[in-house]
Fold Alpha/beta hydrolase fold-3 domain-containing protein.
Amino acid sequence: MILGQVSWLDCIVFLVFLTPQLIAHAGFFRTLSCGLQALPFLLIKLPLSFIHDRYILDRAYRDPFVQHATWFEDITVRCVRYAFAYIPPDIGRVFLSQPVALPFLRFRMFRHGYLHSPIHWHEVKQNDFQGLWIIENQFQEPDVVIYYAHGGGFSMGSSYFYLEFFLAWLSLLKSSGFRNPAIFSLEYTLVPDKSYPVQLLQTIAGYKHVLSLSCDPARICVSGDSAGATLILSLLLYLESITMDTLANITDGKEIRDIRPGLAVLISPWVTLVSPKDKITSGDYLNPTTLHQYAHQYANKAIINSSLVSPGNCKNAERWKIASPAKGFFIHYGSEEVFAQEIRDWVVLLKSAGIAVESWEEKGGIHAWPVAALFLSSTRERQKGIKMISERIRKLMCSK
């Protein structure tokens, strides 16, 4: 199920769903204050900078993202950039929460003629983890399972906000040749409600659950964007270091000697939580200052340079070789995003160990664009990134 581009009507309806939730979670006066503080940006800075950057500035000097972005994409990214820098995360998380995202998805489905989802999904709630199980045919065994951890700086985001993305991805996975693809999206606890190691423990428990659904680890593709990719990398390093007793616990005593997943697909991974290589760019909506604040909140009392907290701090190429999935990595990121240089250097490290790594650097691309584009871009462009990822998963996981 692939819905059309988000329209202005969708934006209005989203605000209708959002407003009461903001008042309920942040209070009326705090919500009003946040809105009033945004007015100078919305009424003055946004239109002036938009006109200057797109129509006055010589094209040769325009930001690479602006050069190819539509005006709808450009305006939305500018608003997200403002929100990331100035809206407190406890308010920002409401934008991406289940009570807002789920009714919004149902409205978009209704607008496209769907009263019910043609793809099955349901919540999974256990004592040590929870998430969403999405599958083409719930009565058949999946031939590939994507284990996904969402992004959001550890402080915001939800599986429900990504649900439309997952439904589209599942459709494209089936089009690429899989018979019955499935996705399990981990719903981990956000900061500051809990901090490390809670999120990693939940990621481990979620992987154990996915193993129980697919007895063959080679059919599992671990994936995530941004902070979710951090958790996936931490999971891989954890699996590399476990003892035989721990292995037996994860596999529930089954005779599985190698529990590494078949493949890892990462979208704009936050490889190193605090890095001097993180540079602010004019196109991206992230900024290092806010990111590093989120990083320290996530690490809490743990050592932020620990490889299980911040996987990019593991510079041991041989350890990465042992931790690597059987079919290696596919990494998608943008040339204009804050993490670009850190990702490039990490890819070089992996390749130095002889690990199978494919990476795609989107020219002019910004952070987690395959996810964002599904909502913002035109019909053809919005599927480009996730279609490429689906085809790479099919090719790599089916290779010998």
Q: What stands out?
A: Residues 28-56 form the longest helix (29 residues). Strands lie at 120-125, 130-135, 144-149, 181-186, 220-225, 263-267, 329-334, 357-362.
